[in-house]
Fold this protein.
Amino acid sequence: MPHHLPEALVTDRFLGCILGEAVGDALGLPFEGCEPERITEMFPTPETLSLHHFPIRNFRLGQYSDDTQMMRCVLDSLVAHRELNLDDVSHRLVKLWETDVIGAGDACSIAVANLRRGVSWQDSGAPKGQAGNGSTMRTAPLGLWYADEVPTLVEKTKQLSLMTHKDERSTAGAIVVSLAVTHLLAHDPKKRFNPKALVDLVVPYVQELNPHFAEEIAHFPKRLKEPHGQALREIRRAGQSTDKHTPWPGISGYVLPTILAVLDAFGRSPKDFRQSLWCILSYGGDVDTTGALTGVLSGTFNGLSAIPYEWVRQVHDNNQFGYDYLVRQAKELFQLKNSK
């Protein structure tokens, strides 16, 4: 816990982390898989960005997806058990799939099917070669709970990732998110965001899993100085062979370009939640996940107070688990952490 900061600020950042994911997810969900041009035509400036209805099902405005649903499973489990109980998380994921998971990816669905058949969480993950974002989207609460225990945080993140993904690139992405949360939680608000400090924290742990992933993360500060279009072209190609065609417009569901895009969108306007979310949505593609993760970083850095009120008040999961619920759970997590 960053005791050098006022308690009210740290509480606001806990809330911002959790609600930021839900808001970014809800902003992106209606436009998942869309071309960048379609999104920027609808939202030509950050000021025009707003929540829209999910077109496939008749959900009320503000519905979020499996990104926040799975994060909520981890959050609720931490509050209930005051530690990462992986058996409990696995049961919560199975229950989520049995009720109404929204937009689940293939790897997580494979893993949950394995869990339902009685396979242990250590062996349930989708096989190597499936390097999607299912691990990254649910790891943010770990960055809050283990904020002052970095080696433990990394180990717990690895375990949580293994439940759905055996590919080390997915684990590397999850570690980037959890370490970014703990780093941004402790940031001195009187100082500017320092991308190199974040890279210096993250790269050694990622290097152990996948050197190429670590090399791409290390370029994050340099890319922020490049023209935006050039940086985005590099990010889209990251980790892809030059002759491989991705069917995704914009940012694909592959974990490496996702993490690079999220860092880029946050790093270009770290003090402006709306600007960062508009930026990541303008990249197109898997925008519920990229929106959710950008919301995590910007929400943690800036706090709930920096997120537009009309957005946070409308998030929900099929008319449940909305603003009041997420605020209550995030506050409870903070109080439990503060009393450890």
About this structure: Confidence is low (pLDDT under 50) at residues 241-245. The chain has one domain: 7-338. DSSP finds 17 helices and no strands in the chain. Residues 15 and 304 are 5 Å apart (CA to CA).
